[in-house]
C-alpha cells in the first residue's frame, strides 16, 4: 500500500510539475501574433483562398513556414515535406428545360432534385389534381404515365401520410413515370439562393453528402415556369376526372462530367515521447470561397481564425519543448483544404492517413473563432466569453474531461452545449472536418464561436474579429490538446 501511495504521489507531483509551466505558457498566448497571422491569411493578396487556387497554395506555404519555425516536422519524405496532395473530381454540368419553344438553363425558374443525369425528349406531361393518395393509386394505370412527367399537387404530400405517399411514388415508378413536377412559390427563394453561389466550383462529394435516393427525380418550378407549362393547354379532359395530358411535351436534359484536380493539405508532426500511444490530430481548414466578381470572400472567421489558432498552438508547444516538456502522444497538425467544397481535404486525409485511424486517439477540430454569433449577441456579459463545444466520445477516452479541465486553468469560458442538443446537432456534426473521422470511429472535440452575421459574406473581414476572445479560445484549445496528449 505504501508503495502504491508513493507511486501515485510521484505521478501527481510529476503532473503538477508539468501543469505549472504549461499554464504559464498558455498565459503567453500572443494576441498580437494571432492578429498578424489572421490579417495575412484574410488579406486581399490571399483572395479568399479558394481550394485549388494559387492562393490556396500560398496559404499552405505560409502555414508550412510557421510549422518549420516552431519545430513541427513535415509528415512526408523523412520530415522534409508537409504537403499532402489531394485529388478531387471537379464537376461540370450542362442542364436545360424546354417548355414549348423556350429553352431555360439551370436555375432559370427551375431546379431538379437530386441533380443527376437525365435525358427526356418531348416527354409527355400528365397533370393531376388528386388530393387523396389512395384515389391517385387507382388512377395510375388509366393515366398512362409511361415515359412521362407527372405534375402533382404539393398538397397531396401535406394531406397524406408519408407511407401512403411513398407507396404512390413506387407505383408511379413501376408504371415508368420519369419525373415528378411541382409548382411552388417557395422555389423562388431556393433558386435565388442557388444563384448566389453558382460562381463557386462544384465537386463530386463524399457519399454522406449525396442526397437520399429519391424514388423519382423531382422537378421544382417557380410559379412563373409552372404557368408557362400549363399554358400549353390540356387535352383529353373529362368532367370529374382528376388527370389530363398537356398538349405539348417537355425536354429535360442534365449532363454531368468530372475532371480530376489537385489541392494541398498541410500535414505536420510533433512526435510524442511514447510512440506506442495513439496520436492526436489538431485540425483547422485554410480554404474559403475565393473571389466573388470584383469582391472577395475573405474568410476571416471562417477559417483564417482557426488556422491562426493552430499556428499559435505550435508556438506554445515549441516553448514547452524548449523547457523540456513534450507531449506523450504524437500530435499531427492538419490544415485541410476543401472544407468549404464538401470536407474534401479532411475526407482525403481520413482515407489516406499518416497513421492508421485505429492508432488515432482523437481529433480536436477548430472551425471559426473570435466572433460573437447571432445567438449570443447582446444577451449578457458572458456573450463575449464563450465557446461552442461538440464532443463525441462513445468509447469514453476522457475527451470531455480534458476539455473541461483545460477550461478551469485559464480561459474560464462559458462552454455552450447548444449544438449538442439533438435538434441542432446534425448541421454542426456534418458541417466541419471532424465528420469524416467521426464516421470512421475517431472521437472528436469541436470548438467554435458559431455563425456570425458575416458568415460566408464578403464582409467576413479581419477587423471584425474579437482578438481577446480569439486568444481565450486558442488557450482553451491549447490546454485541451495538452490534456489529450498527456
Considering the chains and any ligands shown, give keywords for the structure:
486 residues; alpha/beta; Aminopeptidase; Glucose Oxidase, domain 1; 2 domains; twelve-stranded mixed β-sheet; seven-stranded mixed β-sheet; 14 helices; 21 strands; 24% strand; elongated; Peptidase_M28; M28_fam; metalloexopeptidase activity; M28 family peptidase
Description:
The chain has helices at residues 2-27, 31-41, 54-69, 133-143, 155-159, 162-174, 186-196, 223-230, 300-322, 344-351, 399-409, 425-430, 435-438, 467-485, and strands spanning 73-74, 83-99, 102-105, 110-113, 118-123, 125-128, 149-151, 179-183, 202-203, 218-221, 234-235, 243-246, 250-270, 279-285, 290-292, 295-297, 331-336, 360-366, 386-392, 414-416, 444-448. With 486 residues, the chain is α/β, with parallel strands linked by helices. It folds into two domains: 26-90 and 259-485, 3-Layer(aba) Sandwich (Aminopeptidase); 101-248, 3-Layer(bba) Sandwich (Glucose Oxidase, domain 1). Strands 1, 2, 3, 5, 9, 13, 14, 17, 18, 19, 20 and 21 form a twelve-stranded mixed sheet that branches. It is elongated and about 90 Å long.
What is the alpha-carbon Rg in Å? 27 Å
Number of helices in the DSSP assignment:
14
What's the domain count?
Answer: 2
The CATH architecture of the largest domain is 3-Layer(aba) Sandwich
CATH top level assignment of the largest domain: Alpha Beta
The helix content is 25-40%
Task: Outline the low-pLDDT stretches.
Answer: 1-14
Computed structural class: alpha/beta
Q: Count the strands?
A: 21
According to CATH, the fold-level topology of the largest domain is Aminopeptidase
Oligomer: single chain
Q: Average pLDDT across residues?
A: 93
Query: What is the makeup of the main sheet?
Result: 12 strands, mixed
Q: What shape does the CA trace take?
A: elongated
Q: So, the CATH homologous superfamily of the largest domain?
A: Zn peptidases
Strand residues, percent: 15-25%
What is the end-to-end distance?
26 Å
Amino acid at each position: 500500500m505504501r508503495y502504491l501511495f508513493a507511486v501515485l504521489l510521484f505521478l501527481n507531483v510529476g503532473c503538477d510539475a508539468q501543469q505549472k509551466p504549461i499554464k504559464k505558457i498558455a498565459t503567453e498566448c500572443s494576441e498580437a501574433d494571432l492578429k498578424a497571422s489572421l490579417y495575412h491569411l484574410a488579406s486581399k493578396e490571399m483572395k479568399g483562398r479558394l481550394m485549388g487556387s494559387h492562393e490556396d497554395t500560398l496559404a499552405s506555404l505560409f502555414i508550412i513556414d510557421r510549422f518549420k519555425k516552431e519545430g513541427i516536422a513535415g509528415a512526408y519524405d523523412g520530415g522534409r515535406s508537409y504537403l499532402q496532395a489531394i485529388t478531387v473530381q471537379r464537376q461540370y454540368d450542362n442542364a436545360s428545360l424546354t417548355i414549348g419553344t423556350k429553352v431555360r438553363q439551370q436555375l432559370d425558374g427551375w431546379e431538379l432534385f437530386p441533380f443527376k443525369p437525365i435525358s427526356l425528349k418531348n416527354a409527355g406531361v400528365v397533370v393531376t389534381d388528386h388530393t387523396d393518395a389512395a384515389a391517385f393509386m387507382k388512377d395510375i394505370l388509366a393515366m398512362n404515365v409511361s415515359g412521362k412527367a407527372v405534375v402533382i399537387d404539393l398538397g397531396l404530400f401535406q394531406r397524406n401520410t408519408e407511407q401512403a405517399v411513398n407507396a404512390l411514388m413506387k407505383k408511379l415508378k413501376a408504371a415508368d413515370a420519369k419525373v415528378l413536377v411541382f409548382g411552388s412559390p417557395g422555389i423562388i427563394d431556393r433558386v435565388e439562393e442557388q444563384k448566389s453561389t453558382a460562381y463557386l466550383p462544384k465537386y463530386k462529394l463524399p457519399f454522406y453528402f449525396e442526397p437520399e435516393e429519391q424514388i423519382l427525380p423531382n422537378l421544382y418550378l417557380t410559379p412563373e415556369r409552372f404557368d408557362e407549362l400549363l399554358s400549353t393547354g390540356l387535352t383529353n379532359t373529362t368532367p370529374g376526372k382528376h388527370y389530363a395530358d398537356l398538349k405539348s411535351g417537355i425536354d429535360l436534359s442534365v449532363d454531368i462530367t468530372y475532371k480530376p484536380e489537385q489541392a494541398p493539405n498541410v500535414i505536420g508532426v510533433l512526435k510524442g515521447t511514447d510512440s506506442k500511444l495513439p496520436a492526436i490530430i489538431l485540425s483547422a481548414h485554410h480554404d474559403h470561397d475565393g473571389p466573388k466578381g470584383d469582391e472577395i470572400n475573405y474568410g476571416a472567421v471562417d477559417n483564417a481564425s482557426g488556422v491562426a489558432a493552430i499556428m499559435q498552438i505550435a508556438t506554445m508547444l515549441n516553448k514547452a519543448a524548449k523547457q523540456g516538456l513534450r507531449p506523450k502522444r504524437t500530435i499531427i497538425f492538419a490544415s485541410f483544404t476543401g472544407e468549404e467544397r464538401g470536407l474534401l481535404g479532411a475526407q482525403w486525409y481520413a482515407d489516406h492517413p499518416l497513421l492508421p485511424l485505429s492508432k488515432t486517439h482523437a481529433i480536436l477540430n477548430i472551425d471559426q473563432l473570435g466572433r460573437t454569433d447571432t445567438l449570443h449577441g447582446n444577451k449578457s456579459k458572458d456573450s463575449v466569453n464563450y465557446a461552442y463545444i461538440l464532443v463525441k466520445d462513445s468509447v469514453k477516452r476522457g475527451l470531455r474531461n480534458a476539455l473541461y479541465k483545460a477550461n478551469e486553468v485559464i480561459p474560464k469560458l462559458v462552454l455552450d452545449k447548444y449544438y449538442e442538443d439533438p435538434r441542432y446537432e446534425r448541421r454542426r456534426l456534418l458541417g466541419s472536418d471532424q465528420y469524416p473521422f467521426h464516421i470512421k470511429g475517431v472521437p472528436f472535440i469541436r470548438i467554435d464561436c458559431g455563425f456570425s452575421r458575416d458568415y460566408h459574406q464578403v464582409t467576413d473581414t479581419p477587423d471584425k474579429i474579437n482578438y481577446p476572445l480569439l486568444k481565450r479560445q486558442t488557450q482553451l484549445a491549447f490546454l485541451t490538446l495538452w490534456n489529450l496528449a498527456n
